[in-house]
Specification:
Layout: H1 7-38, H2 42-67, H3 79-82, H4 95-110, H5 119-137, H6 150-171, H7 180-188, H8 190-208, H9 212-256, H10 264-272, E1 284-290, H11 296-304, E2 321-327, E3 330-337, H12 344-353, E4 359-365, H13 372-387, E5 396-401, H14 424-440, E6 447-449, H15 461-487, H16 492-511
Helix pairs in contact: 1-8, 2-9, 4-5, 4-9, 5-9
């Protein structure tokens, strides 16, 4: 059995074959030069060659300047650039996580595109991102990089592997057909292949000089295409670096924010729970709040389409009442009808409810001017969420009740056009809304005038439903954050289950 040729022998044989094929064309070059010398045309040919070469070079230089984009001047304000990341942030991120994401984007903006060519530089940039995110979440920790558990690290590795697999299958052609062994063999041949390619390219360019005009045009074309390719390659490199930094930052945020501490089964069980116990874990929690005698329970009645809420008992109700808001046998939310706000003790009770709230319906009477308590309560809610950056501020809708009692009190002929304002009642409603927006420092788009004493058929109740459903969608972000924090609390039952598992393991080992 004959021996297979070695890699060196194969390379030499390939070069010999290429030389034999190109030798006849190469022999034409000295023959043409000898003919030009004998016919005294060598000097005109050289002059023509120099002129055409210089012309082509000037054209290529002009095209290079035209194709090279002007670099914008550096700006200290990077806010516009940071608003358009290559990969968007997660929809369920809290303000604390979004702040960490902004730091990641700053690193992505300042990273050098050339790090893609070095695995060492890629590792260094990844470590820089991880350290930055770790310090964001644990600024007082001596070594924040290692502030995570082993199960979290394993889960992160699993998620990154799954995401990488999906990217390869979706964006890399024939990724499902290429074997790892084939990639390794191509990598082994890379140096010899590049030398052979450069040698063949040089030989081709020499042969092309037989026709100087054609060679000149080809060189100019290659130069222009090379410029365009370089610009495209530069853009792709910059984009690739940003994707690398942002994906590393995204994974680090999930790791150090504690999101990976939550078991998916545990989170699903919490989300499926819709019990009325305290604290409720499942559906979106909608807080109905406001001062006493503003129509909070009437609002619950209008939404529930029955008389479950005891209107006559308010403001004497001591505890919040909860009602399941359903539509087509589907639970949309849990309405929390809270006691009226009338003193500092009531404000403290309201503060205790902030951790269980995903959306807020604040009821305020249009015919009452005493709005200081409303302003203090809303400021207290905003302060609570500012002090707890792991939770986003819930969407807010201010329901303006008792509009029928505005002057003129006897006039009631809806609907009212608050834009044209041709009726005295419409003018009074508009002015009341503007004054409420000014007193509470809220945008007037968050205000909705309604009449609640007519139940589900009251004025603007249909519009109230539409606006509430929009806010319920926005509230799902806060609900997700609330469930995450609720699931991270110490679960003694889980510790007991783990202890039982350890006992079973020891028992099985002793039996062997």
């Amino acid at each position: 059995m004959s021996k297979r040729p070695t890699r060196r022998q194969t390379l030499l044989l390939t070069i010999t074959v290429l030389l034999l094929i190109t030798l006849p064309a190469l022999m034409l070059l000295p023959a043409g030069l000898i003919w030009l010398w004998q016919t005294n045309l060598i000097y005109p040919w050289l002059a023509t060659l120099i002129l055409l070469t210089l012309t082509g070079y000037l054209i290529a230089l002009w095209m290079q300047r035209r194709l090279t984009p002007d670099k914008p001047p550096a700006s200290s304000d990077q806010s516009e650039a940071l608003q358009s990341p290559v990969t968007p942030p997660s929809d369920n991120w809290s303000p604390q996580e979004l702040a960490a994401w902004q730091e990641v984007l700053k690193l992505a903006q300042s990273s050098d595109k050339n790090i893609l060519g070095s695995w060492t530089l890629l590792q260094q940039s990844a470590r820089q991102v991880i350290e930055q995110v770790a310090r964001h979440y644990h600024p007082d920790h001596k070594d924040p990089v290692w502030n995570f558990t082993l199960p979290e690290a394993l889960l992160l590795s699993e998620r990154v592997s799954q995401q990488l697999r999906l990217v390869l299958l979706d964006q890399v052609p024939a990724a499902h057909m290429i074997q790892v062994g084939q990639i390794l063999r191509l990598w082994e041949y890379r140096e010899g292949s590049m030398k052979l390619y450069r040698g063949a390219t040089m030989a081709y360019r020499l042969v092309r000089l037989i026709n100087p005009l054609s060679a000149l045009l080809a060189e100019a074309r290659d130069r222009i295409l090379g410029i365009a390719f370089d610009e495209t390659s530069d853009y792709l490199q910059q984009r690739g670096v940003r994707i690398w930094i942002e994906e590393i930052g995204r994974a680090a945020i999930d790791l150090y924010s504690g999101r990976l501490q939550v078991d998916s089964v545990q989170l699903s069980n919490l989300a499926a729970s819709d019990s009325m116990t305290q604290p409720p874990a499942g559906p979106v929690q909608v807080l109905i709040a406001g001062q006493v005698n503003t129509g909070k329970s009437s609002l619950a009645n209008a939404l529930l389409k029955d008389t479950q809420a005891a209107v006559d008992l308010l403001p004497m109700t001591a505890d919040s009442r909860r009602y399941r808001l359903s539509q087509d046998d589907e639970t949309l939310a849990v309405l929390i009808d809270s006691p009226g706000i009338d003193n500092d003790a009531a404000l403290k009770r309201l503060a205790a409810q902030c951790a269980d709230v995903d959306c807020i319906l604040w009821v305020i009477a249009a015919n009452r001017a005493d709005r200081e308590m409303d302003f203090r309560a809303l400021e207290m809610i905003r302060d609570w969420f500012r002090d707890n950056p792991r939770r986003s501020m819930p969407p807010l809708l201010l329901v303006v009740s008792h509009i029928d009692r505005l002057s003129p009190a006897r006039e009631w002929s809806p609907p009212y056009d608050l834009i044209a304002r041709t009726q005295p009642k419409a003018i009074a409603i508009y002015e009341a809304l503007q004054q409420i927006a000014q007193d509470l420092k809220v945008p007037d788009t968050d205000l909705l005038p309604v009449r609640l004493d007519q139940g589900p058929d009251g004025y603007n109740i249909n519009l109230l439903w539409a606006l509430l459903q929009e806010r319920l969608e926005l509230a799902k972000k806060g609900r997700s954050q609330r469930l995450q924090l609720l699931a991270r609390k110490s679960d003694w039952r889980k510790l007991l289950q783990q202890a039982r598992g350890t006992g079973r393991l020891i028992k099985n080992v002793l039996k062997r």
